[in-house]
Write a structure and sequence with these properties.
Blueprint (H helix, E strand, L loop, with lengths): L26 H13 L15 H26 L14 H10 L6 E3 L5 H6 L4 H8 L33 H14 L6 E6 L6 H13 L3 E7 L2 E2 L2 E2 L12 H5 L3 E5 L3 H16 L5 E6 L17 H8 L3 H12 L4 H24 L15
Helix pairs in contact: 2-3, 2-11, 2-12, 3-9, 5-12, 6-7
Bound molecules: thiamine diphosphate and magnesium ion (MG).
The site of magnesium ion has 6 residues, from strand 4.
């Protein structure tokens, strides 16, 4: 088949193209970005109040956001040093979504089902970086005690259920957990994530439909980071927004600027409160941009550079810093100290994980079922 000429008009619904490799210099992504921009209200207003957040919460959310970026940056370093078992899937540029979502839940009662890019949710839900590093390095101290190298990490003691790799499959499981807790008479919420790519899987539809019919206390966060591996969203769905599907399920759906951690918190917390109070499930589409490759072995050469530059201006850390400075919640001097302390904490956590033992070989197959 002849390759489309650069600049050729691609066919398809709403400007979508069938073969993304034929995109003329990112024109279609740019058009889509304009559509997305129109969806995102300007949220850099100083002294804007976000939900029930207190001054301490604003600062704590910033600390968790900054920590997530720095924890991940050091994972890359360990990966390049050959100390990591398996792949490393970073959330650079999208951290605010996982961090704010985990923070919206009740750590003592709710259930969290993170996906491969949601390290920040583990931490904002109370997990120690040491445990995460131990997991990535295959140590006995990791949540799977060295059984799995990377993202498939459950910690039952914290009600964190690790993903399995099949995209979408965690949605029905998380819905089932929500219903199960309700049957036990508990006011508990379960929350999981899915990517823009995973949102096209059958389990997504089945899980959401079931959640709606059962009125489950469940929240789904769609992390729309514009790409599923190398496939851009223009080649993934014809609708302007994934969230339009909520109408079909008969449940509330909201779009949020995924690069504003406080806005994500406000939106997710509202959904969590509604679920807890018997109001049923909610879908949230958090719009963002994946700023690294699919995983650290991928240089994401297929992403137009101008798209990345545009999204770099929306960096969630810079946005939060600006908000904190303008609102007076955390001025630069105090912020730099907080950042310095956070780095020292992370380095100590890495040291502890690195010094911790590998699993005992005599215990290799305990807790392994397949
Ligand atoms: C059912 C299924 N199909 C394909 C894959 C391989 N795969 C793993 S991650 C990924 C990309 C997922 O993209 P998206 O859902 O947008 O999430 P993102 O990685 O962008 O956060 C693919 C294709 C898989 N794990 N499961
Ligand atoms: Mg994606």
């Amino acid at each position: 088949m002849a390759k489309a000429k650069t600049g050729a008009t691609a066919n398809g619904v709403n400007g979508a193209v069938a073969h993304h490799e034929n995109l003329p210099a990112g024109v279609f992504q740019q058009n889509h970005l304009k559509k997305l921009d129109a969806l995102l209200p300007e949220l850099d207003i100083p002294n804007r109040k976000y939900g029930d957040l207190t001054k301490d919460d604003y600062i704590e959310l910033y600390r968790l956001l900054y920590m997530t970026r720095e924890v991940e940056a050091r994972l890359t370093r360990l990966y390049r040093q050959g100390k990591i078992v398996g792949g490393v899937y970073l959330s650079k540029g999208t951290e605010a979504i996982a961090v704010a979502s985990g923070y919206s839940l009740n750590r003592d009662t709710d259930w969290l089902f993170p996906m491969h890019r949601d390290l920040g949710a583990h931490m904002s839900f109370g997990q120690r970086p040491m445990k995460l590093y131990a997991q990535y390095m295959g140590r006995a101290a990791g949540p799977t005690r060295g059984r799995d190298g990377n993202t498939h990490m459950s910690d039952k003691s914290r009600r964190i259920v690790g993903m399995i790799s099949h995209l979408g499959s965690m949605i029905p499981v998380a819905v089932g957990a929500a219903i199960g807790c309700r049957m036990q008479g508990k006011k508990v919420v379960s929350l999981t994530f899915i990517g823009d790519g995973g949102a096209s899987i059958g389990d997504f539809h089945e899980g959401l439909n079931f959640a709606a019919v059962a009125h489950a206390p469940f929240v789904l966060i769609i992390e729309n980071n514009q790409y599923a591996y190398s496939t851009p969203i223009v080649a993934q769905y014809g609708a302007a927004k994934i969230i339009d599907r909520a109408i079909g399920y008969g449940i509330p759906g909201e779009v949020v600027d995924g690069n504003n951690i406080y806005a994500v918190y406000e939106t997710v917390k509202k959904a969590v409160d509604r679920a807890r109070n018997g109001g049923g499930p909610t879908m949230i589409e958090a719009v963002t941009m994946r700023m690294r490759g699919h995983s650290e072995h991928d240089d994401h050469f297929y992403v137009p550079k101008d798209l990345l530059e545009k999204w770099a201006e929306r960096d969630p850390i810079l946005r939060a810093q600006r908000f904190l400075e303008k609102s007076g919640h955390l001025k630069e001097k105090a912020r730099l100290k907080l950042e310095e302390d956070t780095i020292a904490f992370i380095e100590a956590e890495i040291e502890e994980a690195s010094a911790s033992p590998m699993p005992d070989t005599g215990d290799l197959v305990s807790s392994v079922y397949a």
